[in-house]
Design a protein that fits this description.
Blueprint: E1 3-6, H1 10-21, E2 30-33, H2 37-47, E3 50-52, H3 55-60, E4 64-67, H4 74-81, E5 90-93, H5 100-105, E6 112-117, E7 127-133, H6 141-149, E8 153-157, H7 163-171, H8 173-190, E9 200-203, H9 207-218, E10 227-230, H10 234-244, E11 247-249, H11 252-257, E12 261-264, H12 271-278, E13 287-290, H13 297-302, E14 309-314, E15 324-330, H14 338-346, E16 350-354, H15 360-368, H16 370-387, E17 408-411, H17 415-426, E18 435-438, H18 442-452, E19 455-457, H19 460-465, E20 469-472, H20 476-486, E21 495-498, H21 505-510, E22 517-522, E23 532-538, H22 546-554, E24 558-562, H23 568-576, H24 578-595, H25 600-621, H26 625-631, H27 638-648, H28 651-669
Parallel strand pairs: 1-2, 1-4, 2-3, 4-5, 5-6, 7-8, 9-10, 9-12, 10-11, 12-13, 13-14, 15-16, 17-18, 17-20, 18-19, 20-21, 21-22, 23-24
Antiparallel strand pairs: 6-7, 14-15, 22-23
Helix pairs in contact: 15-24, 15-25, 16-23, 16-24, 16-25, 16-26, 16-27, 16-28, 23-28, 24-25
Amino acid sequence: MRIGFVGAGRMAQAIAKGFTSRGIIKSRNIWASDRAEKTLERISTELRINVTHDNREVVEHSDILVLSVKPQVMDTVLAELSDLTDPSKLVVSVAAGVTLDHLQSRLLPDSRVIRLMPNTPILANAGASVYCVGKAAKPEDGPLIEALFKSVGTCDYLPENLMDAATGLSGSGPAFIFEAIDAMTSAGVQMGLPLHAMRVGFIGAGRMAQAIAKGFTSKGVVKATDIWASAITKKTLTKVSTELGINVSQSNREVVEHSDILVLSVKPQVMDSVLAEMSDLVDPFKLVVSVAAGVTLDHLQSRLLPDSRVIRLMPNTPILVNAGASVYCVGRAAKPEDGPLIEALFKSVGTCDYLPENLMDAATGLSGSGPAFILEAIDAMTNAGVNLGLPHNQIDPSVAEKLSNVRVGFVGAGRMAQAIVKGFTNDGIVKAQNIWASARTKATLNKVSAELGINVSQSNREVAEHSDILVLSVKPQVMDSVLAELSDLTDPSKLVVSVAAGVTLDHLQSRLLPDSRVIRLMPNTPILANAGASVYCVGKAAKPEDGPLIEALFKSVGTCDYLPENLMDAATGLSGSGPAFILEAIDAMTNAGVHQGLPRPLAMRLATQTVYGTSRLVLESGRHPAELRDAITSPGGTTITGLSELEARGFRTALWQAVNAAANRSAELGAKKPAQ
């Protein structure tokens, strides 16, 4: 039995694959024609069937001729082939809506004709096909077609007057079921369920794609087995497969076929060739997400099928550390649930917000180029700190001592003290029952006791008596009265830690017992969010293990590094005053976004997330800010344009001088000369 296909699209390919994989027809007995050379080359390689551009050649090599063309070109095909379709051949049309009478009228009068209507699941060998037979068909023609098409699903006879009913049921039915699955999936996602059944494909497996895939899998949003990625080089694919455990291929089309959501993660200059390669595969059942900068929805839509569901998404570099700030806009054929679905996915790697497309350029200027601006700020502030004498990198000493039974007391229970306590207890470093705090007002103590579960007292001395480590968390102007009250209790068995700005070790030591163990520690405001940058110096009577002990404690609320006291003013200028400089930057970037048309809440979220994500990128990569900045700055692009403006406005110099000025002021307040 020889079978020919006029038209070698996806439907024909699926049917031919079903026939050969089930051993019903040998591949050498199948012929197919198509206009596109690329299509013929591919199916010849993949299916090993015979191919040609000539429809008549296919007819001549066929006993059963399957007309798998669109209805609008059917008459042209029939006119070309009518003289070849004698009664020795069985003609099967799978073109929707083309009746037996219409087919018969354009072929030889005694042509054997069958009209067959498969449905989309035939692409997965699970079709539901129905057929009707023409008046010249032989009795055995119907059973023969049934036997063939049952290799790719079910196949049943119907009188032609019921074909429209079947079209409404099994023909359109898959779309109804897809809609139901999609709606139920989106509802589940909004309630917090993971997207385990969703298949995601990446065309392009660079750093951005790898970071996104890693975020999806690490957060349990999509299983690694449900992710595919393509790349040009085998080296990249091997790395991605090994590190992420996802499926890989050098064939973009294979990735498309295994995807429900297709992420186009390629450079803008190669986007058109990628779209041309896969446009015939991107039907309305797939959601296409482009992360290529500057490629508009209209451009994407114009190169895909008219009803393709398209979303344009712009992530930023901090997505590499799961702290991206992404924005997206939706194409005209996208479903209402497509946007929320993409939001749910990309919130696993940072933030994700909807924007109308006319504001995408504004977001590019803010969150897209913003990481480079923040890296510039970090670099300038780092260099200012180094110029003031701070070491470029700090090495954490090892800590061997267990802290679980250490008793910690806080004299002063304000926001700073509460934040530190919360960090200690949340990380399980110190038990709540081993912490005491004092304050002047009962309202503060009741709040702290209720929220943190620690011991409270209005007596500073009671707190000192219950402490191994005593944290003096009071304002500098009341420090002397607190020291006078407690000095007789601060024997060498206790470690005293002052977090009061500008109060020196000598000052503390002079008001306590001579052999008191004292540490001066300077946290900064972000300690309130467990993200502080603390530095400390140790008094002359401190034990060798006191410094590492304090580091271990305060690393539960951020970073903590040792400094000699003569550099504390430099650290004050950098990390102490630094949060205000960064807040100024966030405010300026937010206002610029608002000026460009972004809603203020979104502009602030993008600016804030950009700063947060960029900072994480520096901390987690261990790379110099200048190196990271250069890596994300394209020649002639938006980021270098913005950086040039910062340079023209003296951005680096301004930050450098701000750190210097703050350090000098800290020295003045402490009545000592700053390091230069």
